[in-house]
Design brief:
alpha+beta, 9-stranded mixed sheet
């Protein structure tokens, strides 16, 4: 702050001037009007030097108050002055918390080394970070993402074509980036247990090309599909991913991914946890070598008859460390709603000795019954309305409908008769509440079951990528850019999970992302940023955990620069 005196024919006006930078230029604005010399002289014995001394002291006080964040900022608006053509005044600052995590992971340094390798003329770190922030805050196409980036407080210094050039390089360096991130975080990474699963993403372009292949999808879309395999650590933090064609079996994807982790991550001792779809004999044998083990789910319906009979037998169940043996058909399920009963035996499958553990949960049984009842009610509605039959997949209520096309006399009926398949409903209900896992571990059953129950986190991660981050549908055509797209989605998921953990997992993904998306600021040149968002428990938690504040009545230009600088450390 400094004193400025403007002389005219009729008056000598005293102002406090504040200098600031606008774009690449230094400029200044009037911060405060002190009055004219004629107005001030009578107050100070008509002594000009006293007036100037007082005015300089006011400028000093303003400077000091600004340093101490106690300065009250005067703002003036004109009813007659139009806003500048094409000038943006509202900006998002929610990305700053994500930026803090981006730099904490060392991604800026990783990007710098990649840039040197390819002799880039543009800022790869800026491109990648902005793609990640846009994926979390306003997920869309690369063009729409580029347009959204202009709303950040730090507007990007690159063009749209730079993004597409960067995608080609990011695809080539994807494995390297994943390995470098693991190296930077391995001290805090809970990699004793690794969860692996696969999911599918569809394309809007109805043409097979490269890794875009037609395959089965839950949505039954007539679109090419690509598959993504994802590793999470025991805390639900994304560790590594792979992309492979949509028409391939997912089971063979596990071993190459593990080999990549074994070589690139130098990680050799861990337990692999997967669902039944990835629990092939080959995958089990591979994870019975060295210091590796496995915990995999087993389909109770597809087990051998004698094992299924043993598993469903109501007698012979244990509870915790108690030596008492239970008959689950005789227990009071209200009392034991949160109890998990178990039984075990060793089996030999495909020449591999495995521990078969069956658990029974009244709570899980109740949940499955609720789900099935809703599906049965939908099936009844289909029968009543006479709706056309659809594909009978494992979760479609059509599986509970049987169609009868002959009369009692065995003749061909003129109309198809539909009714509930009571036998099918009863068959499915037999398995309510039961879970089966196979393992080579001899650990406490409680610990093994606890590991298996956390598989829901990887399913939630896929849901976040598909729903919140809109990783599908995919509009890109080149394989390299498709892989780079999923790299940004993977990194977006990583940053989100890190954010979630930093906030002690107190808030849902929707609550967090919506809060960050709404953290906008009204910018006034030379004055600062006025928060446009509502302060909440989430914004308080963000500011507390990240140790900077944007929720004051105004964030001065100087303070915002400091916040931005701190977010990159």
């Amino acid at each position: 702050m400094r004193l400025n005196i403007v002389k005219s024919k009729n008056a000598e006006q005293l102002y406090i001037i504040k200098s600031f930078r606008k774009g690449s230029k230094n400029t200044s604005r009037i911060f405060k009007k002190l009055g004219t010399m004629d107005e001030l002289l009578p107050k100070y014995d008509n002594d000009r030097e006293k007036v100037l001394a007082w005015a300089k002291e006011q400028a000093r006080i303003c400077t000091e108050e600004e340093k101490n964040n106690t300065l009250k900022v005067p703002v003036e608006f004109s009813q007659g002055k139009q806003i500048a053509m094409g000038e943006r005044v509202s900006f998002n600052g929610g990305y700053l918390f994500l930026q803090k995590i981006f730099h904490a992971l060392g991604l800026d340094g990783i990007c710098s080394s990649v840039s040197e390798k390819y002799n880039f003329q543009y800022d790869l770190s800026s491109i990648l970070s902005n793609l990640i922030y846009a994926r979390i805050l306003s997920p869309s196409s690369k063009l729409s993402s580029f347009e959204y980036m202009q709303e950040f407080i730090e507007t990007p210094g690159f063009e749209l074509h730079d993004i597409y050039r960067a995608l080609d390089v990011l695809a080539k360096e994807s494995d390297n980036i994943q390995a470098r991130i693991y190296e930077a975080t391995k001290k805090t990474c809970n990699d004793a247990i690794l969860y692996y699963d696969c999911t599918k993403f569809f394309f809007e372009i109805e043409e097979e090309r490269g890794i875009r292949k037609y395959g089965k999808s839950k949505e039954h879309r007539p679109n090419p599909i690509v598959q993504l395999g994802l590793f999470l650590d025991a805390d639900g933090i994304p560790l590594a991913f792979t992309v492979f064609p949509g028409n391939e079996n997912e089971q063979p994807s596990l071993i190459p991914m593990e080999k990549k982790i074994l070589s690139d991550f130098a990680l050799s001792k861990f337990i692999i946890c997967t669902d039944a779809g990835l629990a092939s004999a080959a995958n089990r044998r591979f994870n019975n070598r060295g210091e590796r083990s496995f915990i995999v789910t087993q389909s109770l319906k597809s087990m051998k008859s004698f094992l299924k009979e043993w598993a469903l037998e109501p007698k012979g169940w244990s509870l915790g460390s108690s030596k008492e043996i239970y008959d689950i058909s005789a227990i009071d399920e209200d009392i034991h709603m949160n109890s998990i009963f178990h039984k075990e035996r060793w089996i030999n499958e495909n020449g591999l000795e495995q521990r078969l553990i069956v658990s029974y949960s009244p709570k899980y049984k109740h949940y499955q019954q609720q789900i099935r009842q809703a599906q049965v009610e939908r099936a009844e509605g289909i029968i009543e309305k006479g709706s056309k039959a659809k594909t009978r997949n494992p979760n479609n209520p059509m599986r509970f409908i049987e169609e009868i096309q002959i009369t009692i006399d065995g003749e061909i009926a003129e109309k198809t008769s539909r009714s509930l398949n009571i036998k099918k409903i009863a068959e499915e209900s037999m398995y309510d509440g039961f879970t089966v896992v196979c393992t080579t571990l001899e650990d406490d059953i409680k610990d093994i079951l606890k590991v298996n129950r956390r598989r829901w986190e990887i399913e939630e991660s896929f849901r976040i990528m598909k729903s919140e981050f809109k990783a599908r549908s995919v509009y890109l055509q080149k394989d390299e850019r498709i892989c780079a797209h999923f790299l940004t989605c993977f990194l977006a998921l990583l940053l989100y999970r890190m954010l979630e953990h930093r906030l002690d997992e107190k808030f849902t993904v929707s609550e967090l992302t919506q809060t960050l998306r709404k953290m906008n600021f009204f910018h006034m040149d030379g004055i600062g940023y006025l928060p446009e968002y509502a302060r909440s428990d989430i914004t308080d938690a963000l500011h507390e955990k990240f140790e900077f504040r944007t929720d004051t009545e105004i964030v001065t230009e100087k303070n915002m620069k400091k916040i931005i600088k701190d977010s990159k450390r």
